[in-house]
Every structure is written in structure tokens, then in C-alpha cells.
Amino acid sequence: LSQHQFNDCKVCGRNNHRTLDCYYKPGSHDGGVPSKFIKPSTITSFPVYIKIRVNDQPTEAIVDTGSAISIIHLNFLKTIHHKNFIYKNHTCQTANSTSLNIIGQIKLEIKIKSITTYVVACVATNLITSILLGNDWINSNHVHLYGDQKKLTIPDQHDQLISIPYVEPTCINYPALLIRQITLPPYSQQLVDIICQINNAHNLIFEPYERHISKFIFMPHTLLNINKNQAKVLLINAQNRQQTLSKNTRIGTISRDATYTIYATTQIPTKNNSILNEHHQTSTRHYNKLKFRAVL
């Protein structure tokens, strides 16, 4: 790697090494685990995704040089074969002062092309992606990230560098349709059943179809759990007359946000035990006309 011309290090400014390997980087003297928070994604300004297989289950992983540890979402762990789960509750504080709820750890097999690696990952209930590979995996496997070339390299069993391209995250973007015709009385709200092309999924983003705003029909932006292609959404009629929407009317879009916040984590427990469960709901001033309180 010495023959490569590196970009200026974002820590010390020199160009004879990568930011990931900087001697002066916080935590570089204590085994690579940050002793304090560092700026996430120091090599690139966007999340790095690669295709991997976790215990032989294909998925896309975030590779983050700003995280001291690797983390897997509990919901994704439930979909793969695994054993020897160790229960161990604690909280990891993130760079934006929110908390990750860690319930244990597990050893995982991570395959990239023909290369097999292993990592002991923390299991979280509120991670924003299926799996995140942190510095524990990056450093132990001599992984180097090249943001300008949109790739990373990892040596195989013969010490030959294998190039792994970055990939765009899979983005779910499907219409949400009414299952049946509904009639909304004046100044009322109603939970309605919707259907979409997604079979089962958790924490998908629902965004209202803007054309209904002109009719004073409002819906909160919210997170949905899809079960057998169905979910419930709150509709609010802010008009002084009843309104009817026919079966299969498109009322919004269901998607998974591709712009993630990358967490820089430490192993230090925090007294702040709040979980990322404050789902911001967007509304407009028209809601003030309602005689009822909207509750999801």
C-alpha cells in the first residue's frame, strides 16, 4: 500500500497514511477503541455499503470507521441461523447523544466474496440498519477504504488484496393503497387499512400523498410495521363535510430511508437509557381545526 498516494489525513494533515491508520487519531493508543467520540465516516462523507453474507444470509452492511464496535439488529439476527447468544444488557452512547439499546452479543461469520471473517457483534434493538461493521472488524481484517474509488480492500488467505466495490443501498419505495372504500365524517379521524407490495417489514417510513392536502385530508408521517402486506394509517378529515375515498386509492408511499445516520459508539455505559423511540410526526396548521386529538 505504500505505493499509493493517500489523500490528506483528516486528523493530522499528512498524506503518507490513511485517516483510519493515523497515530494521532483518538483511541489509536488503546487498541483501536475510541476513548472519546470521533467524527463518524472519517474516510467518506456518506455511508459505505457492501454486500456480505452473515451466517450465510445475504445482506448489505454499513462499514463505519467511526464506530468502535460491530452491531447487528435483533430483527435481522432472528432471520439467520445462529447459536451461543450471550445476554448482556447495556447502553452505547452515540455521537449525537442518543442511545443504542444493547441486549447481548454473538459471534458471526462474515463472508465477502471468497473471504471468510469473524466478528463478535453487539445485538441492538434499535439499530438503523441490519448490520454495521465497525473498527473491531475493520482493523482485525486489515480493511482499507478508498472513498474516491468507491471500494475497499481486504487481504485473502494468500495475502492478496481483494477489491470490494461499494453498493447503493436497496431502497424500498412502494405505493400505499386503501384496502376498501372509506367515508370520513366532517372533522373526524379514522384508522384505515392499507395494502402494499411488501410482505413483512418493520420501521418503514410512510409519507402521505400530497394530492390529498388540497382536499384537507391529512395523514401523519410515521413509521409502520407491515404484516402480511397490510398496515394501519390515520386519516384526518379537516373539512366541514364528509369525504369518501374509493378502494385502491393511493394515500401515500412506503419506503426505507437510504440516508442513514452513522453512529460513532463507545463501550462506555451511559446513564441516559432513552431508546430511539421518539418518532417525529409531521403535521400542518390545519390540524388545529380538528375537534379531536389525533392519536396513533
UniProtKB/TrEMBL annotation:
GO biological process terms held by the UniProt record: proteolysis
Database matches in Pfam families: gag-asp_proteas
CDD domains linked: retropepsin_like
One GO molecular-function entry: aspartic-type endopeptidase activity
InterPro entries: Aspartic_peptidase_AS, Peptidase_aspartic_dom_sf
Protein name (database record): Peptidase A2 domain-containing protein
